[in-house]
Amino acid sequence: MNAEDYAEQASEIFVLSDSFIRIKELIDDESSTIDDIADVILLDPALSGTILKLANSSFFNYPGKIDTISKAVLVLGITEVYNLVIAYFSTQAFKSNQVESQFLEEFWECSVDTALMIKYIGSKLHTVNAERLFILGLLHGVGELVIKQLAPEKFKEALVISSDELPWQKQREVFGFTYADVSAELLKEWQLPFSIVEPIRYQNEEKFECSTQETKLLFIAKRMMLLNYGCSHFEQEMLISPEKLVETHVNSALIKAANEFCDMERLGILAMLKPSAAMIY
């Protein structure tokens, strides 16, 4: 099986709801109004509550009170609200994942950390289209969940890496592709925008010549997260060369600040997107 085969299988198990499809149709339709989009979101009380909680959190730091979905769309913008909708329904889709609860909680913690780091760095660097950075970080690793469920034995094999081997190098050796490829193919199956799918597909690409700014920042944020988790035994230079930091204008002070931002925001975001994840604290 190749990455596309795994993604096709996964798309039959991890299904986005009809509400998501309807919201996407409205957002794609230029004749739709803010009220049209808000009305569909309001049909799902859990989604509405999550969006309002996130909109009023320190994550957005909006000075006033956002008490209606229409105001959330107006204040945050359609793209930002759409990203929140994607975040909500994506995490809901994986509730049917038949993996160990501890693994799932740790997975979402790593995903949220990557999302917070890329959003923080992107905002500090005044990145264009920064509103989609959070969703890139949150969904960058969903292919790992797919492989964990559909090919558990090969997944275990890919965990055994040598001291000088990076995880995605071993994944390519075992599968012939990386989890990033599966992530991108699943998001493509879900018909998410190209601007989200492609940075996730190329998150491990060492050559920056053809990379977008979003792809470069995901490259950095993911590796920063790994330094705190699965690859904490590596020296930073093995995961992120000084040249890559210079090229992306990321310095040690920004890395430190991004980690501190994660520590402040992690629990709140986990509690809103994955209520059970907050219990590990």
Domains, number = 1
Helix-strand makeup class: mainly alpha
**Residues in β-strands, percent:** under 5%
- In angstroms, what separates the terminal alpha carbons? 38 Å
Elements, N to C (H/E): HHHHHHHHHHHHHHHHH
- Any idea what the CATH superfamily is called? Hypothetical protein af1432
Shape: globular
Second-tier CATH architecture: Orthogonal Bundle
Unreliable parts: 277-281
Task: Using the coordinates above, name the CATH class.
Answer: Mainly Alpha
Tally of individual helices: 17
Estimated radius of gyration: 18 Å
Pfam families: HDOD (PF08668)
Domain HDOD: 13-206
InterPro entries: HDOD, RNase_Y/CdgJ
Protein name: HD family phosphohydrolase
How would you describe the overall organization of this protein?
The protein is mostly helical. The chain has one domain: Hypothetical protein af1432, CATH 1.10.3210. 68% of the residues lie in helices and 0% in strands. The protein has 17 helices and no strands. α8 crosses α13 and α9 (142-150) crosses α12 (179-189). The longest helix is centred in the middle third of the chain and has 24 residues, at 101-124. The model is unreliable at 277-281 (pLDDT under 50).
Please name the defining characteristics of this protein:
mainly alpha; 17 helices; globular; HD family phosphohydrolase; RNase_Y/CdgJ; HDOD
List the helices and strands and how they pair.
Layout: H1 3-13, H2 18-28, H3 34-42, H4 45-55, H5 69-76, H6 78-93, H7 101-124, H8 133-139, H9 142-150, H10 152-159, H11 167-175, H12 179-189, H13 194-201, H14 213-228, H15 236-239, H16 242-248, H17 252-273
